[in-house]
Amino acid sequence: MNQLIESIHQELLSGVQIESLDPHNPVAVHQVPDPWQLLGAGNYAAVFYHPRYSDQVVKIYAPGRPGFAEELEVYRRLGSHPAFSECLYSGENFLVLKRLYGVTLYDCVHLGKRIPKQVIQDIDQALDYARDRGLHPHDVHGRNVMMQDGRGLVVDVSDFLQQEACSAWDDLKRAYYWIYVPVLSPLRLRVPYFVLDVVRAIYRYFRRLVRRNV
Ligand SMILES: Nc1ncnc2c1ncn2[C@@H]1O[C@H](COP(=O)(O)OP(=O)(O)O)[C@@H](O)[C@H]1O
Ligand SMILES: [Mg+2]
Q1: Quick check: CB of 57 below 6 Å from ligand 1?
Q2: Where are the domains positioned within the chain?
Q3: CATH number at 103-208
Q4: Is the minimum distance from the CB of 155 to ligand 1 under 6 angstroms?
Q5: Could you say which ligand is closest to the alpha carbon of residue 29?
Q6: Is residue 100 in contact with ligand 1, taking CB distance under 6 Å?
Q7: Which of 23, 136, 146, 164 is deepest in the core (most CB within 10 A)?
Q8: How far apart are the first and last CA of the chain?
Q9: What is the CA(156)–ligand 2 centre distance, in A?
Q10: Distance between CA 20 and CA 62 in Å, rounded?
Q11: Cβ distance 159 to 75 under 8 Å?
């Protein structure tokens, strides 16, 4: 772990360039210093791993994006659970997390990987566990949940302290049972990223409309 922390400070933090262009879209990563690898980007942060320490990932918050301290607190409350990662170390604007070797459900739909119901049930149970720990599952969408060996994982818990209701997971489940199970899955359709992004934009638009009317 010490060597990993050293490498984060000496190689990663000094060389990496992360920029949040728009809070509703993933951050842009302009530079990744060798041998670090970019694993994914969310609306707050980018996630990297070092090939020599590949069981850990480093999540670096983009300058100006909030949520770092909150995510740390969420991991403290979650403790150890098979469907969640764990926070192993925290620095100034980064967290070292246990790596989850899954494929996000968003990527599964893109790749045409079949998502069994067990995955959805595992995530439901994991979110119940989080609620029992005084947390409020929030922003649980296709890029924040994963499938590994037919089981469900929750990869991003950064908004779980927010008390405001969030329907993302219920909406995703509805799409799973109404569209994925009867149509996409049997046809083994692969959905291109641009279609997924258009669906995401339409979804956001309607969610805002609905919210305005309640
Ligand atoms: N512990 C982890 N193990 C493996 N991949 C991860 C892990 N945490 C994040 N990722 C990858 O990085 C992406 C962005 O991380 P995420 O935590 O969702 O960031 P944000 O809080 O900005 O949304 C995820 O969609 C996932 O692909
Ligand atoms: Mg995310």
Answers
A1: yes
A2: 2-98, 103-208
A3: 1.10.510
A4: yes
A5: 1
A6: yes
A7: 146
A8: 49
A9: 5
A10: 6
A11: no
pLDDT in tens, 102-145: 999 999 999 999 999 999 999 999 999 999 999 999 999 999 99
Global pTM?
0.91
Q: What single letter denotes the amino acid at residue 141? A: H
| Beta-sheet strand order (sheet of 103-104) | 103-104, 145-148, 151-154
Give yes or no for residue 43 CB within 6 A of ligand 1. yes
Interaxial angle between packed helices 168-175 and 117-132, expressed in degrees from 0 to 180 and rounded to the nearest 10: 160
Q: Which helix (H) or strand (E) holds 73?
A: helix 68-78
Any bridge partners for residue 147, and if so which?
103, 152
**Cα–Cα distance for residue pair 45/41, rounded to 1 Å:** 6
Place of tokens 């990663």: 12
CATH of span 2-98: 3.30.200
78 alpha carbon – ligand 1 mean position (Å) = 17
At 192, give phi and psi (nearest 5°).
-60, 155
